[in-house]
Amino acid sequence: MTARAGFNPDESPLARLATRGGRAGGPFLDASEAIAGERLRADFTRGQLMPGITQRWDSQPRQARGSKGSRDLSDSAIDARKRVDAAIAAVGPELSGVLLDVCCFLKGLEIVERERQWPARSAKLLLKAGLGVLARHYGIKPERANDRPVIRRWGTADYRPTIGGGTE
């Protein structure tokens, strides 16, 4: 996974799972699963869904109880929240909790297992299953070693571009 501005791959549990070897010799998470998890995390962050734990120093009064607080959010934050809601709905209630804990709240797998009183290594398997469903929801195709790269373009299936810029 490549680093980008504002993103530290060392703090992500997914980055470690995407580089750490699994039983078959390759990484435990394939690239599509890791990308899907980081995309969920990016939308979670853009949507300002992380609870605040510090004191507010601005002079603005807090929102009244029961209000959504969407007046203070930008359109991009509202859109990000909608994308998070759609992703969580697509994954379902069985797998969404572990995805939110690991991808968004950056909890380690051992902490998730302890908090939910799950058996050892169960969070790892449920995380992989949830990330697979999430990648399918986002339309991210898994990469295989023998697959050729897919060229994405606009056009119909029988469309063929001309080479050399000339007309036929």
UniProtKB/TrEMBL annotation:
<dbReference type="InterPro" id="IPR045599">
    <property type="entry name" value="DUF6456"/>
</dbReference>
<protein>
    <recommendedName>
        <fullName>DUF6456 domain-containing protein</fullName>
    </recommendedName>
</protein>
<feature type="region of interest" description="Disordered">
    <location>
        <begin position="51"/>
        <end position="76"/>
    </location>
</feature>
<feature type="region of interest" description="Disordered">
    <location>
        <begin position="1"/>
        <end position="26"/>
    </location>
</feature>
<dbReference type="Pfam" id="PF20057">
    <property type="entry name" value="DUF6456"/>
</dbReference>
<feature type="domain" description="DUF6456">
    <location>
        <begin position="7"/>
        <end position="139"/>
    </location>
</feature>
